[in-house]
Design brief:
The chain is mostly helical. The chain folds into 2 domains: 77 residues, no CATH class; 51 residues. The protein has 6 helices and no strands.
Length: 147
């Protein structure tokens, strides 16, 4: 029974150790982020390298936001790999939005044209009926020519 208690104590000590807060200065955070972007490695890989912990829990993303790498990264770091990727993504989104707007505008034009043609057809049919009633002339096209 003593061994089981020691194991529980050890695991509690390990858990406390895992929960310890690790402080990084702004300079260290920038160094970690830059290395992650330059080496093209994952957040977990870089986090484990600097902390020895397997799980990162979103700290790097928070730092990237705080330090201007995300949302406002352009002012602080125009030449970073992340900034270039984000710029490229923004351009693609803008192009898709522009294409979508163009297509929606074209749809509106076509719908308007269809309504105009439908109204012309109704007016034409009314005109043909009036001519037939008043003058006795049937101007509707006859399908199938008879000789």
């Amino acid at each position: 029974m003593e061994k089981q208690e020691k194991k529980k104590t050890t695991s509690l000590e390990e858990q406390k150790k895992k929960r310890e807060f690790i402080y990084f200065s702004e300079e260290e955070k920038r160094k970690i982020i830059e290395e992650m972007l330059e080496r093209d490695c994952t957040k977990q890989e870089i986090w484990e390298k600097y902390t020895g912990r397997k799980q990162e829990h979103g700290s790097i993303i928070v730092w990237m936001r705080q330090l201007g790498y995300i949302e406002g990264y352009k002012e602080t770091n125009k030449n970073s790999k992340f900034a270039k990727i984000a710029d490229n993504m923004e351009e693609k989104v803008k192009e898709k939005d522009y294409e979508k707007i163009k297509l929606e505008k074209r749809i509106e034009q076509l719908e308007k044209r269809i309504k105009e043609l439908e109204m012309k057809e109704v007016a034409y049919n009314i005109m043909l009926e009036i001519i037939k009633e008043e003058y006795g002339i049937d101007l509707k096209k006859k399908h199938g020519i008879k000789w």
